[in-house]
Write a structure and sequence with these properties.
alpha+beta, five-stranded antiparallel beta sheet, 27% helix
Length: 138
């Protein structure tokens, strides 16, 4: 049975080696955007809640079990994610990295649900934290 947690507008299920993030604004302009296998984008205003949801998943036993099973050298490393980039035209933050969706279409597409391997959440959380600190210092 998958582990389920909810933070603000996010519902997260985690099982096996993946976490599935579902956003409440599916189909809306502010829905997250995913370029399958290449990256993730979300409204800058939603970044804090998403960062918190990633942190909540990292507290779960399923996260630590996945980390223990993984033998990859880059597991948990921030280098699998690019530094977040803010686009003032659409007010979204873009992060290149291993994010997946069920629709293999080119380019960033609005999605209601996307998955990330549990072992890559630590690196994503590092990138998000660094971005949020830099944002607070502006």
């Amino acid at each position: 049975m998958p582990t389920l947690t909810t933070v603000a507008d996010w519902t997260i299920t985690a099982s096996g080696d993946t976490a599935c993030f579902t956003h409440a604004f599916a189909g809306d302009y502010w829905a997250p955007r995913v370029w399958n296998g290449r990256g993730l984008a979300m409204a800058e205003s939603d970044l804090a809640a998403f960062d918190k949801s990633v942190g909540e998943v990292m507290k779960l036993p399923v996260y630590w079990l996945a980390r223990a099973r993984c033998r990859a050298a880059d597991a948990g490393d921030a280098s699998v994610w690019s530094p977040p980039r803010y686009d003032s035209d659409d007010e979204f933050v873009y992060i290149a990295g291993p994010c997946r969706t069920g629709a293999p279409a080119p380019g960033y597409r609005p999605v209601s649900t996307f998955t990330i391997e549990l072992v890559h959440l630590r690196g994503l959380r590092i990138r998000l934290a660094a971005y949020r600190v830099a944002l607070a210092c502006r």
